Amino acid sequence: MLKLKLNKITVKKLLKGINNESHIRIMEVCGTHTMAIAKAGIKQLLPANIELISGPGCPVCVTAQEDIERILILAKKREVIITTFGDMLRVPGSTGSLQEMQAQGADVRIVYSPLDAVNLARNNPEKEIVFLAVGFETTTPTVAFALEDAHKTGVDNFSIVCMHKLVIPALKALLSDQETEIHGFLLPGHVSTIIGTIPYEFIPREYQRACVVSGFEPGDILESILFISRQLENADYKVENQYKRGVKTEGNKIALEIMDKYFTPFNSLWRGMGEIKDSGLRLRPEYVQYDAIFKFGLQDTLVQLAPSGCICGNILKGILKPEECALFSKMCTPAFPVGPCMVSSEGACAASYYYAGGEVIGR
User: Fold this and answer.
1) How confident is the model at residue 305 (pLDDT cuts 50, 70, 90)?
2) Can you tell me the distance from the alpha carbon of 334 to that of 90, in angstroms, rounded to the nearest whole number?
3) CATH superfamily of 1-310
4) Where are the domains of the chain?
């Protein structure tokens, strides 16, 4: 559909259609949805029986603590310049964060594209430029294009810490988890622009769950919840695409091809979810020279993990809510985060902290 313009009449019409009387738990698996829902006050508008829960949709939040610790080791090396998107700066490790290390003299720089990191390497041949490659299928193609640029132009002082994750294996793990009760999914719009809608078909077919690929405007999200409610009411489970203006059934073939050229799936650790089969991406053997962990010999490094009392893992699985954490808004705030769900601009804890009451739409 086209972008839905909201007013009080439209909101009331959408809410009137969401009339399923059963208790329904709908999980969004996209950090942008998490923030949009909180900011618009959508939870406050819905009937009491419709429960929205946040899943593992924030890439910074699901990054394993082991990866954070190895990044901090890399940042201590004088010949290394760490390049990253801003959200990774304040993720705490056992010896501090990248932001704290930056204050102590480490060369850590925010970039807006992986290609910026390649250009930095090209202009600083005496330094080793390491890019922190975090994200789902949405950002992975941009890293692949950066690798293509570095490879074709002979930039050999550029490498990445590959922490890319895949959404589909995570969804399968959630649906197989007996602790997690989910009746429907708001599927991620950004990821779906890359992978399309076909990979989600196992959800209704094998698990009889409702699912809708949703856009990001409040109207998109409300309409997607309406679609999920109707699927559940009629027991008509399928993959619906509410975000047709951005998502094609087959996805983006060019992006998928370059991802496959440089990366291959492997069993990857997710915060709070453990190791999930074929859920991460690593560089193919022919491009291992761009793997910073291999390049600096950190693949077998034992890391010390500091216990924090953070329940981010259970929040990411939809078992607990941010407000149920003893640290929430007390010891753990955006200014002084204990866990990554409070650090990231797409984290469930940050969304709850900033928009506890929400700027309720349509009022």
Assistant:
1) low
2) 9
3) HypD, alpha/beta domain 2 (3.40.50.11740)
4) 1-310, 312-354
